[in-house]
From TrEMBL:
Quaternary structure (record): Homodimer which binds Holliday junction (HJ) DNA. The HJ becomes 2-fold symmetrical on binding to RuvC with unstacked arms; it has a different conformation from HJ DNA in complex with RuvA. In the full resolvosome a probable DNA-RuvA(4)-RuvB(12)-RuvC(2) complex forms which resolves the HJ.
Catalytic activities: Endonucleolytic cleavage at a junction such as a reciprocal single-stranded crossover between two homologous DNA duplexes (Holliday junction)
Record localization: Cytoplasm
Superkingdom of source: Bacteria
Obligatory cofactor(s): Mg(2+)
Family named by the database record: Belongs to the RuvC family.
Identification of the protein by name: Crossover junction endodeoxyribonuclease RuvC
Organism: Mycolicibacterium llatzerense
Protein's gene: ruvC
Active site positions, chain numbering: 7, 68, 141
Length: 185
């Protein structure tokens, strides 16, 4: 499975591409950070992010996109910009029929470090070890994008099982409702 990990942001948007193999084997294919100056109009910044992401999707052909879920923090402007960047990326994926999954920062940290409250240095160190990289990815947005892709590779089997279980439960509910309706008739 080829996963594109995205750490969304207006000033720095981390992008990564990894290939998930058997078990927990993950191989890094590419990583980059899209930068947009804060003095540029919002719509132009979003266009730069969109153009770069679309190029990545067309070039790397991911099977799925893993995006960090926006969480409320003290700076509403930062949260808004992060959400807008994530929305542009999710839209580009939807236009190409690529599934999108959102992961919280604590899910990602727990997946790669075993601790949902790990700091950025711990995440970067573990990403470097997991992928067998020669040097630590910088800036932190690049490491975070790789961590998102790794997290999704490792969580995908569980996500698929959950979706299958939910589909079965919905079918059983539908069958039960039909039996109840038939019994009342």
């Amino acid at each position: 499975m080829r996963v594109m990990g995205v750490d969304p942001g207006l000033t720095r948007c981390g992008l990564s591409m990894v290939e998930g193999g058997a078990g927990r084997k993950v191989t890094a294919l590419d990583v980059d950070v899209v930068r947009t100056p804060s003095d540029v109009e919002l719509h132009r910044r979003l266009l730069t992010i969109s153009d770069t992401v679309e190029h990545w999707m067309d070039t790397h052909r991911p099977d799925v996109i893993a995006i960090e879920r926006v969480f409320a923090n003290q700076n509403a402007n930062t949260a808004m910009g992060t959400a807008q960047a994530g929305g542009v990326i999710a839209l580009a994926a939807a236009r190409r029929g690529i599934d999108v999954h959102f992961h919280t920062p604590s899910e990602v940290k727990a997946a790669v470090t075993g601790n949902g409250r790990a700091d950025k240095a711990q995440v970067t160190t573990m990403v470097t070890k997991i992928l067998g990289l020669q040097q630590k990815p910088t800036p932190a947005d690049a490491a975070d994008a790789l961590a998102l892709a790794i997290c999704h590779c490792w969580r995908a089997p569980m996500i698929a099982r959950m979706a299958e279980a939910e589909a079965k439960a919905a079918e059983f509910k539908k069958q039960y409702a039909a039996k109840v309706k038939a019994a009342r008739a």
